[in-house]
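Hi there,

I know you've been waiting on this one. I reran it after we fixed the sequence typo, so this is the corrected version. Both the input and the resulting structure follow.
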Amino acid sequence: MRPILDLPPAGCQRTFLALRANLLLTHSKGVTGMIERWNGRLFLILVLLLLSQLAAAEEIAPGLRYEQRAEPGPLAIQWLEVDPERISIRLRHAGAGGLGRETVSALALQEGAIAAVNGGFFRIGGPLDGKSTGLLKVAGRWISDSLLPRGAIGWQNTGRDALIGRLRVFWTLRVGQWRFPVDRINGPRGASGTILYTAAFDASTRTEPGGREVIVSNDRITAIADGGNSPIPKGGFVYSAGAAVREKVSALRPGMRARLDLRFQPGFQAQPSPRSRWSEMDFILGGTPVLVSEGRKVSGFSEERIQDSFVHGRHPRTAVGIRKDGTWILLVVDGRQELKSIGMTLDELAGYLVSLGCVRALNLDGGGSSTLVINGRARNSPSDPTGERPVSDAILLFPRPTQ
């Protein structure tokens, strides 16, 4: 790492901020003699010293730059500038399947990533601990969907032409002339639910008895199981119908050909369609809400159905933004630490991302999950008293091989 500026202690920052405030106050009272005695060169030195207290940057690797700033509030902000042509951007789930949690630093060390930030929202505790609650597609494998219409970011292995927008995804099981809707994928199944379980979830469906499960491998039904917790074939899936709707699949038999149809509904307005740029994405990560669109802050988040306290409260935040030239910004704002950083509202976060040149941006999981890691070490100050919070998934960064 090549340090460009070293960030001094917080006490120095407060000293210079106090000096700047004192100068402004003195001037406002008409007492200008103090400033007039300073020649231009000395005043310029003071300005440069003040700026050095508030900002620092490091080149982590070719195509990857780290910056941090201390802003009034106080606010501790750090971000990664990523050139996707020189840095590979990948998603990693903590568990072997769709469950489990790990810290961001542990995930980065396991994979040999040079930097990482936390990803999407997830369940904490219970039998589905670590299950993503939003859209999640990792290296072409669907792990999770979203119950509500929410934002997402999608990208190919190249990292270029990333998509950020509101998105819904719909699955349908097709067997001959029959169509069977899918309520969710890889989630808990209620009595009236129809859930699709893929091999990315776990070895079995973990469902309770009482339903009926259609086991499909290599596009053909291999078994119909009354009960629950059926094994999930590696080359297929299980369509699980709860007790109240199990008779809807009563006509199905082993040997029938079966396949899944997938449709995308960007923006919540157009009719769902299998033809979408989203279908070409190797990685899709859900978040909420979309913060920036076409270079402007998004006004209002009602379409994504999130609580006012989440919108207007000050919290630690993690966000991803894309500049016009394709550069990625992975930003973390510390919070819930009164003397160091109080956090941001979503409107403030959106404005800050616009100030960094982002034309599109998405809020990711925040709070105690907000973590930015470089070379295996968290560079921010996570808000949980125990330190880094184990998370469901993370965005990992790797140098691309030189040609």
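Quick highlight: The radius of gyration is 25 Å.

Best,
R. S.
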